[in-house]
Amino acid sequence: MFDILRDSKCTDCGKELLGGDFLFMEGERPLCLTCADLDHLVYLPRGDTALTRRARKHSALSAVVVRFSRARKRYERQGVLVEESALEQAEAECLADAEQRNVRRERADIYRDKQDQVLAMRMAESIRQMFPGCPPEEARSIAARTSVRGSGRVGRTASGRALEEEALRAAVVASIRHRHTKYDRLLMKGLDRMDARDTVRDDIDRVLESWRRAPG
Predict the structure, then answer these.
(1) CA distances from 129 to 90, 122, 204 (A)
(2) Strand, coil or helix: 186
């Protein structure tokens, strides 16, 4: 099932489908919900995993709704269509054990936070081993920033979590670029990103070289 961005038309009844309407593809034929025999279903947006899972379990018929992301050039899940009675049953079940699920969620959050703290500490230690001249507080700052869960930064990649030298060096270089050079000011002046990087490359290398030396 598609949450369409551009206007279309149902090939069976001729109904105009506007951006934001749902469209079902039967082969190469676009159909509205009524002609696809799905108009008795209700829409459940994504966001509540437990509710979605239970609603789909109780619904004899369901459909995943996707929308094309122009930014990411792919279809992304937006929610599901389920039977109204199934949604009502799922909502009642979620309400009944909401407190229990909240407790489990809080415990999971605490566990993840602890994992993140340990990862950041190990990263800081590894950075200091690679660059003994790096101030301890700066190593901790670099590790904390690059290891943020969901950030997409190098510290959250498989190589970063494995404390591989190339990944940690990339995190250190990125920090130096922003904190110890005029890179950000060059970008604000409109300089191309790669040209700005070339401009500050020597400054980065000087800081790296000084950090490779243990303090006297």
Answers:
(1) 53, 11, 19
(2) helix
Report d(CA 136, CA 124) in Å as an integer.
Answer: 8
pTM: 0.56
End-to-end, the C-alpha distance of the chain in Å comes to 66
How do the pLDDT tens digits run along the chain, 216 residues long?
999 888 999 999 999 998 889 999 998 899 999 999 999 999 999 999 999 999 999 999 999 999 999 888 899 999 999 999 999 999 999 999 988 888 888 888 888 889 989 999 999 999 999 999 999 999 999 999 898 887 778 778 888 888 999 999 999 999 999 999 999 999 999 999 999 999 999 999 999 999 999 876
Rounded to whole angstroms, the Cα distance separating 31 from 51 reads 28
Q: What is the SS3 assignment for 69?
A: strand
Phi and psi based region of residue 5 (left: phi greater than 0; alpha: psi -120 to 50; beta: remaining): alpha
Residue entry with tokens 């050079």: 181
- 30 by DSSP, 3-state: which? strand
What number of other Cβ atoms are within 10 A of residue 34's Cβ?
13
Per the DSSP assignment, residues forming a β-bridge with 45 are 79
Q: CA 180 to CA 132: how far, in whole Å?
A: 17
- What would the two tokens of residue 112 be? 């993840």
Query: Do the Cβ atoms of 17 and 7 come closer than 8 Å?
Result: yes
Q: Where are the chain's structural domains? A: 2-96, 103-212
